[in-house]
Each structure stands twice: as C-alpha cells, then as structure tokens.
Amino acid sequence: MDREKFEPVPLGITQSGQWVSLEGLTKELAIVDGKLPVIPDGAPAVTVNRDGVFAGGKNLDVDVMFPVLHGPYGEDGTVQGLLEMFDIPYVGAGVLASAIGMDKATCKRLFVEAGIPTVDFDVFFWSEWQSYKSEITSRLTDEFTLPIFVKPSRAGSSNGISKVKSWSELDAAVSLAKDFDEKIVIEAFAPGREIECGILGDKASRVGEVRILGDHEFYDFEAKYLDNSTELIVPAKIPVEVEREIQQLALDAFSLIDGRGIARVDFFVQENGEIILNELNTMPGFTATSMYPRLWDATGVGYKEVITRLIELHS
Q1: What is the dihedral of CA 299, 304, 307, 311, to 10 degrees?
Q2: How many other CB atoms are there within 10 angstroms of residue 219's CB atom?
Q3: CA pair distance 163, 158, nearest whole angstrom
Q4: Exposure class string for 279-289: b at 16+ Cβ within 10 A, else e
Q5: Are 190 and 196 in contact (CB under 8 A)?
Q6: C-beta neighbour count of 299 within 10 angstroms
Q7: Spatial contact of 264 and 291, defined as CB atoms under 8 Å apart
Q8: Domains of the chain and CATH, by start
C-alpha cells in the first residue's frame, strides 16, 4: 500500500481463532515449498471493542479494516457483522452481500431469477442425504450427465470440491463436501474457457483467463495456491464484444447481491460463445500475483492504486 497515505497495522487470526498482532512478523508468513505458513507462537493477542483495536494494552488506532480473509468466518458476513457492531469501517462487501456471495446455492438462485445464465444445479442438505440417499441419487441421475461437480455450498478456496466422473464416486464426494458445509451443491460440468473479471467500485476490469496445467482436474486448492500449476493470461484473448458482455454481466451480478467495493466474478465461455456465470467472490485472492490485481493492472490501475481506491471507498 501507499506508505505516504497509510500506515499498515497487520493483524492475523490463528487456527484456534485468536486475533493477534503481526507487527514485525509478516515476512515469516509466506508460502514456502508448497507449505502454508503458521502464525508464530507468542504473537501479542488482539482485542476489539467499540473503543478500538488493542494489542498489549495499546490502542492500535485503526481507522479502517481490510479483511483479506477467505472462507467461513472471513468473507461470509460474520467478520463484517462484528466490525459493524463495533462501528469499525472496513473494505469490501457488507454483511448481506458477503453472506450471499459465500453461499453458492443462494447466489445461483438469485442469478436464475434475474435471468443471468448459470450452470444447472441441485441443492440438498447432508441430513436429507442420510435419509433419502437413493431418492436424491435417482433425481441427480435423471437431471445430470457426467461429469458433475459436488461442492459445499459455503466454503472457500475450492475446499471440499470433487469432480465426479462415475456415479459410484458420488457418495464419497458428498461426504467430503459435508466436512465443509451441511448444504451441498451439485453442478453440471460446463466445458469451456475459465474467464474472470474484477470489480472495483462501480467499474469492471479487463478480463483474464485461467488455464490449468499438469494433472489437476479443475482449479482446486493446490492449483490455486501451492504448486504453480495454473497459467493466468491477462488480458484474455477473446473478442471485444464478448469481453464487454462479460463485464456487464459481472456488474449486474455485483449489483444483484448488493456488492460493495471489490469482487471477482468468474465465468465459463463455451465453444458456441455462450457465457455462463460460475460464481462471485466478494474478497478475491489479493497477492500481487493474484488474478484480481493483475486484471486491474491490465486496465491501467496498478496494485498500489487499487489498494488506495478500496480504502478510500470505505473510509
């Protein structure tokens, strides 16, 4: 971020849920050799209340929070609600938009109602699967042709997702998804190019393409974060009129969920030219090499300026 305008106050959350100050520790928190970082023991505990954000008995004088968090308790409206209760300004979507954006089933139902094209899908709960497995399986075999995707409705970073290529794999895929969320989504396979578009305020970026390399069946957690098996092509090599249609659909979807500030909207572009909205992320990956800042760089807005605009939108 622009250090002439802002002073960063780095905070982290441990796996046990403790908020801590990361002042002087951020260089230790990098992915090394495919291994995720762990917050060091002994980091000062952080408390938050209506008087401010405190660590070691000191008020950190936080003016605005930038919750660069993924998944449940991060981008699902819970942290956003906490910050609203304490009257702390924050970057990104509010409580409602965050909750909707996190819930694939609810998002897709809204898209369908608004006439935004999305993949065919089905939704059920783990409790229903336990009681009516044969009936649900029969329904799915009637509705879908293989392969299909089985996903937890409310999870981040592609956790708990399976590509099912044989109906014999369905039970294990549902069980895996259940470990991340009781609500389970079945999606039809949509062959085509994976195209993504960024939102900043009320503007849409140029679009980029994600290409999966190696042995990954889809854009899973390892492909996204650990083993450099994806290629990001920015801007995507697609016709101008297709890019414009994607940009408008991205803005429409963002407005539909009452989005604010930032989002990355993901699409499939099929061989026949059909554009299908896959999902909307209210807090996309935000490292300097992530797709979202690269999309804006291709649009003429550098990484530092993106951060400045987001903070100024919400402070």
Answers
A1: -120
A2: 18
A3: 11
A4: bbbbbbbbeee
A5: no
A6: 18
A7: yes
A8: 11-92 (3.40.50.20), 100-117+191-314 (3.30.470.20), 121-188 (3.30.1490.20)
Does the global pTM surpass 0.70? yes
Residue indicated by tokens 């954000």: 53
> From CA 301, how far away is CA 256, in angstroms rounded?
25
Q: Give the neighbor-by-neighbor strand order of the sheet with 230-233.
A: 230-233, 203-212, 193-200, 262-269, 275-281
Centre a 10 Å sphere on the Cβ of residue 7 and count the other Cβ atoms it contains: 11
Q: 156 φ, ψ to 5°?
A: -120, 165
Structure tokens at 129: 């699967």
Residue 270 CB neighbours (<10 A) = 13
Joined together, the tokens standing for residue 20 give: 């801590």
Rounded to whole angstroms, how far apart are CA atoms 10 and 200?
A: 23
Residue 300: half-sphere exposure toward Cβ, Cα within 13 Å: 2
Distance from C-alpha of 257 to C-alpha of 154, rounded to nearest angstrom? 16
DSSP state of 72: T
Transcribe 20-34 into DSSP letters: EE-TTTGGG-S-BTT
CB atoms within 10 A of CB 184: 27
DSSP 99-150: HHHH-HHHHHHHHHHHT--B--EEEEEHHHHHHHHHHHHHHHHHH--S-EEE
Residue 35 DSSP label: B
164-214 residue pLDDT tens: 999 999 999 999 999 999 999 999 999 899 999 999 999 999 999 999 876
Helices 126-143, 170-178: inter-axial angle, 10-degree rounding: 140
Q: What is the pLDDT of residues 62-112, one digit of tens each?
A: 999 999 998 888 999 999 999 999 999 999 999 999 999 999 999 999 999
Residue with tokens 């895929």: 173
